[in-house]
Fold this sequence. Notes:
384 residues; alpha/beta; TIM Barrel; 2 domains; two-stranded antiparallel ribbon
Amino acid sequence: MSSQSKKHRIMVKLLRSLAVVLILFGFIVMMLFIVRSFFIQDESAQRVKGPNVLYPEPSRPQLATGISAGGGLQYLSTTEREEYFNTAAELRAKWVRFDFAWWDIQEAGPSSYDWSKYDAVVAAAAAKDINVLGMVGYTPEWARPATCSDDKCAPEDPTTYAAFVKKVVERYKTRGVSHWEIWNEPNNTVFWKPKPNVKDYASLLTLAYAAAKQADPSATIISGGLSPATNTDGNIAPIDFTEALYAEKAGESFDAFGFHPYCYSGTFNCPADYAEWSAWSQMNDTPRSIRSIMKKNDDDKKIWVTEFGAPTNGPNSVTEKLQANMVRRSYEQLSRQSWAGTFFWYSLQDIGSDNEDVEDWFGLIDANGRKKASFDVFKEISRP
């Protein structure tokens, strides 16, 4: 045999051996990847959707954050207001939600308007490059039914509310405000008196939407954020209210759906854990959910969480550590969802220190100005 032929055979054997080695190496790499995927999952992927389904791991969060201030922001002094927005800017919040109180602005009658307090808040937000979501409510005395003495009563004539919405939108569209929420928690007896009525709210929403769009066609109108109520004492559960709202053909009268998916309950690990009673789970995870109703009505609008939070004292409260975990988990979970809109935390600072009043304790800061653990977490998730 010639030396040339021997060299050829040796080369063939070497190539075959190399091919076998490469195949074995590829097989080992594939098996290692499978084992890693099965046994080593990122903790953030562990929340269960229903009994057995895991969420995918998150991409980098892009969800905008905001602070829901409620109804007191416009009544702060100039110094307090400046401090509030300095703190919101420190948190890197992109939005603030506060009440444009109809009863206050038109307290003196249907032809009178006092915008001064609201102008000041809008200007302060703009100075810090913070967007405003205006919640429009509640009813002045002259527009209430004769039998009602509370500003949370639905207006006797919903066209009076719609006329006010038009005026608000007209005034502030040139001041950088283009997002409006139509009432607050209309499924709850606290905010819609004497008791919630889907037909009445649907009528008010439809009229207000048309009025707002007439004033500013580019405005974004959000339906009143629903509370996590149950069907007791005149309240209407959010899933039932949503289904009835679509039945009233009101689905065409908002650009985004407002929801308040509170789910705190002592040591319950909200929102990481699934529970059918949890308003967080009811957004998308329960067999019958807000999202499933929207899909059934061919509606792919986003859900804006215009309030979410947990108290750190009082009945049924959570620890400060759990509150901080809730900030992180809620943001991470929403930022995976294509249907999620802006996320608002309620609230910036505790409004009191009564151990028996849970409403005093929702802040990222306590009543004495001490930052809770949740403050730094909110600041972290709101990074540019």
